[in-house]
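User: I'm designing a mutation panel for Glycosyltransferase, exosortase A system-associated and want to avoid disrupting the core. Could you give me a predicted structure to guide residue selection? Please restate the sequence first so the numbering is unambiguous.

Assistant: Good idea. Sequence first, for numbering, then the predicted structure tokens:
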Amino acid sequence: MTRILHVLDHSLPLHSGYTFRTRAILKSLRAAGMEVRGITGARHSEDGPPIEQVEGLTFHRVSHIPSGPPGLREWREIESLRKGIERVAADWRPDILHAHSPALCGMAGLRAARRLGLPFVYEIRAFWEDAAVGNGTGREGSLKYRLTRSLENRVVAGADAVFTICAGLRDDLVARGHDGAKIGLSPNGVDLTLFGDAPPRDGALAESIGIGSGPVIGFIGSFYDYEGLDDLIAAMPLLREHHPTAQLLLVGGGPMDEALRAQAAASSAGEAIVFTGRVPHSEVERYYSLVDVLAYPRKKSRLTDLVTPLKPLEAMAQQRIVAASDVGGHRELIEDGVTGLLFPPDDPPGIATSLARFIDEKYRWPGMREAGRLHVAANHDWARNIDRYRAVYQDLLRKRVCRGRRSRIERVIE
């Protein structure tokens, strides 16, 4: 049975889009007959044992937290994780190493794979230098930005196979001069077995938080600047000119929380904007039940043009109505007027006009719900998407056998 060791930035029991994608990948690979484990480095912030079982999945932890000045600290982090990978490999004997971005994980996996004589797969979920710009912790063109990009280029060049989660990321790598023949797509997906019919509206919850009959525009997630929630708040007074009972429900929190609350308090539509704060993951479905249109007003940037988000897919899997800004990452997921609505980014009046018209055409929503669900089933179901990995794994193992390559695990473990 083929064994795959996944090298990860962080994992369950932490909850994030990153960990949910990892969970889906590992469980789908296991259902396809493979043995899987994960290993995390210093950036997994949850305390736990050196080997942890979560939802039936096994994760090894490298708990060493490196010190030193920038640059040296990251190199020590790579080396610490590399050593941890080799320790796990000595005991568990994986057939393939599969590292997931960021590039720190990728370089640790690449160095370990070369020393162990194992095939190496690298998967890019986002360019982390662009993600840092998007969440306000980095600046485009800075030394750190360029070094991160350079490190990722080295990992991509050295990998036996590469996956990206969307065409935008793949096209960018090809434009940098990387071999497109070894770069495959593994799009964001959902486990459709987790999503059934949408639950009925939770009237008690609606009353307790002040949500009326709607229409209710909602966002459930993290409040980063690139999500464009300030544009959605700015659109509300104009939307209420057309639909006076419209409300905005914002569930979650993050770096922009305080600024968004201040903006809402100063808005003429402030009484129609409801913040809940962060809610337990087990309660999220109750809040989804109150929303008529799930809105994703991401601002236009390199990050949002190149990266596809997970949440619109989850919403469509639940047969929810989706409206999103017309940026590259959304266009890969949503067909305007068929599976949802695309509205202009960075344009509150344009957002308000589009949403008002969308609400007026509510008679089209049942068809959109069905089209969205069918689109996810055909293109983003992990039960099917996992075949992309399996084909690449089999090809790499076949090439390894043909070349007579043998694992060098015993010789490199001290």
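For picking mutation sites, this is relevant: The domain at 193-376 is CATH 3.40.50.2000 (Rossmann fold). The longest strand covers residues 216-222.
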